[in-house]
Amino acid sequence: MSHNDEAMEQEIQEKNLEAPRVTLAYINGLMDQMQYRFEQPPGTTSTFCHAFLKGSFYLATGRTACASLANFDEELGRKYAQQEAAQLAKDKLFELEGYRLWIDLGGPVNG
Q1: Model-level pTM greater than 0.70?
Q2: What residues are paired with 38 via a beta bridge?
Q3: At what angle do helices 74-104 and 24-31 cross, to 10 degrees?
Q4: What DSSP character marks residue 66?
Q5: Neighbours of 17 (CB within 10 A)
Q6: pLDDT tier for residue 5 given thresholds of 50, 70 and 90
Q7: Contact (Cβ atoms closer than 8 angstroms) between residue 59 and residue 47
Q8: Which domains does the chain have, with CATH numbers?
Q9: 3-state secondary structure (DSSP) of residue 35
Q10: Which pLDDT band holds residue 25 (cuts at 50, 70, 90)?
Q11: What pLDDT score does 79 carry?
Q12: Average pLDDT in the 74-102 region?
């Protein structure tokens, strides 16, 4: 994602935009409940990290791979796959929670 979540939050607060919204603090609280599961298929240089909210609601998968088995490092594969999974999960949470709030606020105006 091209923006910085903290900078966006600060701008929103500086402009005193106080209508109901999904806050960064709320999403970060959900992110604290994220659990990750890793998968590294035998004989490959691929690492997958699956992000689950509260260990059971799937949100996203991050992945890494290198071209040469000689360069494969399991620790780095897990690290970068988890970083990608976390960002994808965070983006998905903003989308899902935004949709939920939109419905709570009246949803589609024209039904």
Answers
A1: yes
A2: 49
A3: 130
A4: -
A5: 9
A6: confident
A7: no
A8: 31-100 (3.30.160)
A9: strand
A10: very high
A11: 98
A12: 97
